[in-house]
Amino acid sequence: SRWCLITSHKLYSSVYDPNEKTFEKLLIANRGEIACRVIKTCKKMGIKTVAIHSDVDANAVHVKMADEAVCVGPAPTSKSYLNMDAIMEVIKKTRAQAVSLNESICCSCFIYRKQKSQKGVTFIGPDTHAIQAMGDKIESKLLAKNAKVNTIPGFDGVVKDADEAVRIAREIGYPVMIKASAGGGGKGMRIAWDDEETREGFRFSSQEAASSFGDDRLLIEKFIDNPRHIEIQVCVLADKHGNALWLNERECSIQRRNQKVVEEAPSTFLDPETRRAMGEQAVALAKAVKYSSAGTVEFLVDSSKNFYFLEMNTRLQVEHPVTECITGLDLVQEMIRVAKGYPLRHKQADIPINGWAVECRVYAEDPYKSFGLPSIGKLSQYQEPLHLPSVRVDSGVQQGSDISIYYDPMISKLITYGSNRAEALKRMEEALDNYVIRGVTHNISLLREVIIHPRFVQGDISTKFLPEVYPDGFKGHKLTDLERRELLATAASLYVTEQLRSQRFLGTPRIPIAQSKRSSWELSVRLGDGIYPVVVSKDGSSFSVEVDGMKLNVTSEWNLASPLLSVTIDGTRRTIQRLSRNASGDTSIQFLGTVYKLQILTKVAAELSKYMPEKAAEDTSSILRSPMPGAVVAVSVKPGDMVSEGQEICVIEAMKMQNSMIAAKTGKV
């Protein structure tokens, strides 16, 4: 039920030949949404699954979905999901015939150990040589050059220390990109515009690389300013059959901290000639390393449509669902078939671009802090918008799941499909409005603002989209006068509905002494810095609300027990969520994706409220408070030290990303 239902794609996505034998049991050395994604296809193919998990993931969704589950260690990934000895023991214990690995595991190390102890176990993915070559950004760049693939100018060796990094950066010319050789996912990457940023970037990138990948080697290359990030999905079978396909591109330019936020397929930017040239170079590179699985070749494309090889990811990418939607292929199924030795079932001419697909990465993050700093907590209420047409949700959580500091804060991948881009974006807008996430801070407000922004709608995007559109940081949706009146009218109608409900006594035989005939309410609503007089009149199940001298008609079923409320305001339908309320009239409403805090009082209560003392705000100027939960990995000062404004005090590691905490003013620790 979570798949895009595309009738014309049944030839590809729905067909499975039960006579085509693959594996009886497959171990999934991963967690979260990608583990759940693999399990779904395995169930379709009749393959039993084994999940591994850390002790804190004992009740995770992927553990419940699998046929078997084994704990491999404590919460830190290095002691559980990356613990090769424990994983090898589980393979032996469960007699799994195949293994789908976590992208951060050293696959060559796994294959070496497998050959020593577990012969007959198949790795779902490319062979050792391809993994080593493409997993190392330095070697992959050299191979790309030899395969006549366009590459970014830079230093083709390992950077030894900060001094050498500065020297190389000066030779290449600023700005430069410092990145982990074994990295991915935006971890271990820094942009440097001068010598000081190069030294700092070298330090943090090497530490993040060591923490995330167990490999602190770095490379430096020219930073292509204002590029588009476009990927070519490659599905390859490079054994004796010699087949290789490119499955069209994905546009991944909307990013923050080098991590993708919104993806789509196809790209609005590419013409058929550029698409073909990129695809052919991607296939040439895959054949050069004898690649045999699903993988992704990433390119940067400048404004003149010149494209440069960025890296090749030897795994199933997070954003693979948009490729599946427009081609109809089940990439996990293809990976399993290729691993078993079957040839690809399709030719390049069979690969279509049917319609348009958009993916939003829904994170437990605060988008108002650097476009998304991690948030933790328990999902107290969780409801995916699967009741809407052409919506797919790939998630590894459910109501009651914990979002912890140990793992990536992704909640899900929300995908919508349409016959064209406008239809896919409209469905995404509706899906985001209907997505219920309570208990953690999330980035739905940012996602919704991105997809409705005129620049994005026109396809005018680059990797600098967020800082260019929001130079002072993301502030949420800016209400127009009409939208402000709609919000005030809706909030006031909700308040009156609740007041009327509280007057009713169900299941009591008492007869009221006098019938209440009140039909009008004078209210005062505070929104931001403004206070607005609102008059509400009831007419059956509808309300006539006067705001700013204008009357609006508000209708709804007014089911206050539902997390979603569909409200029609003067013929315009809105889906809102009321997140909280209290006896003081304070209420929080999610409207057009953004959460607004209002205070609704009767006219009399509003007049009396001026006599209430206000709580003084906490003075935090002398306190350094981490903007996110995490681990303190370094402290640069001690009690008694004098520090100046902007000086580093400590380093916080949150979800494998390191962040320098600096002093807000000069003073003594």
Per CATH, the architecture of the largest domain is 2-Layer Sandwich
Q: Helix amount, in percent?
A: 25-40%
Report the structural category. alpha+beta
Q: Categorize the overall geometry.
A: globular
- Kindly, what is the distance between the CA atoms of the first and last residues, rounded to a whole number of angstroms? 57 Å
Unreliable segments (pLDDT under 50, ≥5 consecutive)?
1-14, 236-240
What composes the largest sheet?
A: 8 strands, antiparallel
In the sheet with the most strands, the strands line up as 13-12-9-10-11-14-21-19
Kindly give the count of domains: 5
CATH top level of the largest domain is Alpha Beta
Oligomer: single chain
- The overall pLDDT average reads 86
The CATH superfamily of the largest domain bears the name ATP-grasp fold, B domain
Beta fraction: 25-35%
Tally the beta strands.
35
The CATH topology of the largest domain turns out to be: D-amino Acid Aminotransferase, Chain A, domain 1
**Contiguous helical run count:** 18
Radius of gyration, whole Å: 27 Å
